Amino acid sequence: MKFNRQRLLFGIFVLAFIVVTELVTTRFRIPGWPAYLAWVLFFIEQMNAKKIAPILVGAAVGLLLLLLAGPVIGALTPWVGAWARLLYVLAVVYSIFAFGEMIPTFLNNYTFMFITVAAVALGAPDPDPLRWLVIALVGGGALIAATLGALRLMGGTTQTH
After folding, report:
1. Cα dihedral sign, 84-90-94-96
2. b/e string for 95-127 if b means 16 or more Cβ within 10 A?
3. Is residue 159 part of a domain?
4. Under a CB-based contact definition with an 8 Å cutoff, are residues 43 and 161 in contact?
């Protein structure tokens, strides 16, 4: 294993971004997880700038689908009763997988990840999917932009693995 100065420097940038994010989310009493989730997905994609739009749009679509769940389930309940929730989940998941290749920027694995994680987060105190949407787009976008900026400062490399 070689000593890699760029990797060490990049790690310091990442730590700084985490500290700033924590200070902002603590100060404004907002959850940081939507921003972190978008950021982690960007890292999973090897910091490929071409994946930024699908990640952020997928996040927005996933959270919008979560916002639609209540009204749609409420509208279905008179006809199908307790099956309404399951039918909505099945329709959303099917749409992501069946139509994802046709409209991959909107229906993709990121959409699936955000709706799944956000559905779990609904059990947390004071759930607010609309706020999560803004945090994912603004906060996640800011973390991704900061990461790209740090990479440019370091010479433009995206090799962190």
Report:
1. positive
2. bbeeebeeeeebbbbbbbbbbebbbebeeeeee
3. no
4. no
The C-alpha atoms of residue 139 and residue 132 are separated, in whole angstroms, by 10
DSSP 103: S
Average pLDDT over residues 84-90: 95
Domain that residue 44 falls in = 5-153
Cα–Cα nearest to 25, from 118, 126, 132, 127: 132
Q: Is residue 123 part of a domain?
A: yes
Structure tokens that stand for 45 in this block: 């994609």
As given in the structure block, the two tokens for residue 101 are 């290749």
CA dist 148 and 156 (Å) reads 8
Q: CA angle at residue 145 from 142 to 151, to 5 degrees?
A: 140
Among 11-25, 39-53, 99-113, 147-161, which stretch is predicted with the lowest mean pLDDT? 147-161
Task: Tell me which residue has tokens 């979560």.
Answer: 66
The answer to whether residue 158 is domain-embedded is no
Does 160 fall in a domain? no
Count: domains in the chain:
1
Geometric angle at alpha carbon 56, from 102 and 9, rounded to 5°: 130
> Rounded to two decimals, what is the model's pTM?
0.91
